[in-house]
Design a protein that fits this description.
CATH architecture of the largest domain: Sandwich
CATH superfamily of the largest domain: Galactose-binding domain-like
Number of domains: 3
Largest sheet: 8 strands, antiparallel
Number of strands: 24
Structural class: mainly beta
Distance between the termini: 77 Å
Low-confidence stretches: 1-8, 20-36, 301-307, 310-335, 341-357
Strand content: over 45%
Helix content: under 10%
CATH class of the largest domain: Mainly Beta
Radius of gyration: 30 Å
Length: about 350
């Protein structure tokens, strides 16, 4: 880098315009570092919308974020929600989001004033005072905040303002450095990662997974999971260490973005360690009695598991003389024997059946 600067100083000394030099320098830096690009995505649809008082049912707060935007002059049921003058509108998420702006699709009683706030974990903090007489459609942007709640306080400007829709914009990190594709197993595996990078994981529907960020600088980090359609599945924000437990709802590829908060630029390859695995339940065992409770003339299934390797044992509690057709047992261990002409099949959840083939 020092040599690059000396070279550019030399260019300036021979009369090349300084703006040209700046452009050259920017291109050089971009070629040396991967960056995380910030894009805006409407995240209001994944929130729960409520308001202090006002419309309900076909004029309720669910219409603020149902992803349906009728025309500016729309009237009638299911076209807009309304809140009483001086009230509040609240968006709440189940996990931390990075919010960068809002867009108001106003109806025939347009909001003109409110205070935009975010929740910092213990109280509401003012972001800005909104004051705009634009009707129909208006947007505002502000510095990114990480939160689980966005509130519009003291909504006013018209009698009982109404909205056809409200967008809440979230920062989407489109990471510049993409690593390999990995397949989690039952044992922890580790890879080195840096801020601004992405790793892909093969996942199977219904299986739980765990991702842990370790050995990282004392920054505010974000782990964001997305599918290949770029739909956000989860996001965890905070200091190192981060742990995310997530159960796949599809079979395919999970894209895991590793970032400093608010998509700050890539800063240092291999600056953290990511641990990952399938996340089965802890070791344990269950006993399922078939046809009744413990005692004679019965049998049960013991399901013992450790990590991803279940071990199913069938035990008979039947006298040696045999009291049930097709089942006999012998010895102290009560070994279960299936009579000739009978088959053992899966009959239902946690049970087995013995019947004709």
């Amino acid at each position: 880098m020092h040599n690059i600067v000396k070279f550019l100083d030399k260019i300036v000394s021979v009369g090349v315009a300084r703006d040209v030099v700046k452009s050259i320098l920017a291109l050089v830096i971009l070629s040396m570092f991967s960056v995380a690009v910030i894009a805006q995505t409407n995240i209001a649809t994944s929130a729960t919308a409520t308001h202090s008082s006002g419309g309900s049912g076909t004029y309720g707060p669910q219409l603020y974020n149902n992803n349906s935007i009728p025309g500016c002059t729309a009237t009638g049921a299911n076209q807009w929600g309304w809140v009483r003058t001086g009230g509040w509108i609240l968006f709440t998420w189940s996990s931390t989001q990075t919010v960068t702006g809002l867009r108001f699709f106003k109806a025939n009683r347009p909001m003109r004033t409110c205070t935009i706030q975010y929740w910092n974990g213990s109280s509401y903090v003012n972001i800005m005072n909104y004051n705009n007489s634009t009707t129909c459609d208006h947007s505002v942007s502000f510095g990114a905040v990480s939160t689980t709640r966005i509130r519009l306080l003291n909504v006013g400007g018209s009698s009982n303002p109404n909205h056809r829709e409200i967008y809440v914009y979230g920062a989407t990190c489109t990471n510049g450095k993409v690593g390999g594709t990995y397949t989690p197993t039952c044992s922890y595996q580790t890879i080195s990662v840096g801020s601004g990078e992405r790793r892909d994981f093969n996942v199977v529907s219904g299986r739980p997974y765990r991702f842990q960020l370790q050995s990282c600088p004392n920054w505010t980090w974000q782990l964001t999971g997305r599918n290949t359609s770029n739909t956000q599945l989860f996001q965890s924000t905070g200091t190192c260490t981060r742990t995310v437990d997530w159960t796949a709802t599809y079979t395919g590829v999970l894209r895991l973005n590793i970032n400093r908060s608010n998509c700050q630029l890539y800063q240092g390859n291999n600056s953290a360690t990511l641990r990952y695995r399938q996340n089965p339940p802890a070791s344990g065992s269950t006993t399922t009695w078939i046809g009744g409770t413990s005692g004679t003339n019965n049998w049960h299934v013991d399901n013992n598991w450790s990590r991803c390797k279940p071990n199913i044992n069938i035990h008979a509690n039947i006298p040696n003389t045999g009291q049930q057709p097709g089942i006999t047992s012998s010895g102290a261990a009560k070994t279960l024997t299936i009579a000739t002409g009978r088959v053992l099949t899966v009959g239902c959840s946690n049970c087995l059946e013995i019947g004709n083939p």
